[in-house]
Amino acid sequence: MRAGRLVNKARRALMTQSCILTLPKASPCPTSLGSAIARPLLNPHRSFVTMNKDDDSNQLEAIFQKKRSLRSKIRKELKNMTPIQRSQEGISRSGSDNAIQSIVLEAPWFKSSKSLCAYVSCDALREVDTSKILSEILCNPAEEGHTQSRKNLYVPLVEDRNSNMRMLKISSFNDLAANSMNILEPAPVDCDGNQREDVMQASEPVDLFIIPGLAFDRSGRRLGRGGGYYDMFLKKYEELAKARNWKQPFLVALSYSAQIVDEGAIAVTPNDVPIDALVSPTGLIPINPGAMKTCD
């Protein structure tokens, strides 16, 4: 039944698509550090898979089945990865986490960001750790005399089972609490009973999204966990940025090496939002032309 609901949701989305492009080829050039990304408001390189409006549910179901199969494969690989297998790339899982986060923290596009949305990692889901990144933002405010204030940080709150998610502003780890799945989320109101700032109502744009996922390829395709929360939210935010004449945010995903798959392995629909860059333990993999400037 869940698959049927997903098919119906995808079919409805397809009917609203007016212009769908194909994803660009990615550069094979990884680099350990990024540079500031300057992109126009309308980014023609953040695009979607081509699919005709009259595609039937059988084709969509085949796509969803391919996604389910890959999710199962990647979950098993992450769960069964032994220390010896991890050491084949010369780094443990904790070492991978530190390497990935260090790349982000040293990147100019992170340092120059004023507002960002980032996920709170969950070890049970085998997600790349983000605690070091969050600590850098929450525990290290700007020194006295510096003109740049502490970054605004928004983290996800899942609202329901219909792919609705919010990004709420936090100022401390104390603003987070474990939900029923033991994933840390912000409460909608703070300790004083005030509503937390929702990024969709913020007066300033978000510069950067740090995104999780199960699998990625080098042309920007991302495989999530099947709920559609990030894809739906990213589309809503990009529409908001367009309406307000803001620069589109830079979408960066974090990934262990085992999660990077061959091009074509990830089946996509027009609902799937591609990323701009991918950070693995070996460095930054730029996807679109703006991100590719980091290879220069």
Summarize the structure.
The chain has eight helices and eleven strands. The protein is α/β, with parallel strands linked by helices. Helix 1 (2-16) packs across helix 2 (57-80).
How much helix is in the residues? Answer: 25-40%
- In the residues, how many domains can be counted? 1
Q: In total, how many beta strands? A: 11
Q: Summarize model confidence as the mean pLDDT.
A: 80
CATH architecture: 3-Layer(aba) Sandwich
> Largest sheet at a glance?
7 strands, mixed
N→C terminal distance:
49 Å
Explain what this protein looks like in three dimensions.
The chain has 296 residues and is α/β, with parallel strands linked by helices. The chain has a single domain (2-295), classed as 3-Layer(aba) Sandwich (Rossmann fold). 30% of the residues lie in helices and 15% in strands. It contains 8 helices and 11 strands. The strands form 3 sheets. A 7-stranded mixed beta sheet has the order 3-2-1-6-9-10-11. It has a two-stranded antiparallel ribbon with strand order 4-5. A hairpin with a 6-residue loop joins strand 2 and strand 3 (165-170).
Question: How would the blueprint of this fold be written?
Answer:
Blueprint (H helix, E strand, L loop, with lengths): L1 H15 L40 H24 L2 H5 L5 H14 L1 H4 L3 E4 L12 H8 L13 E7 L6 E6 L5 E3 L5 E3 L21 E4 L3 E2 L5 E2 L5 H15 L6 E5 L22 E4 L2 E4 L2 H4 L4
Helix pairs in contact: 1-2
GO cellular component, one term: mitochondrion
Catalytic activity: (6S)-5-formyl-5,6,7,8-tetrahydrofolate + ATP = (6R)-5,10-methenyltetrahydrofolate + ADP + phosphate
GO biological process, one term: folic acid-containing compound biosynthetic process
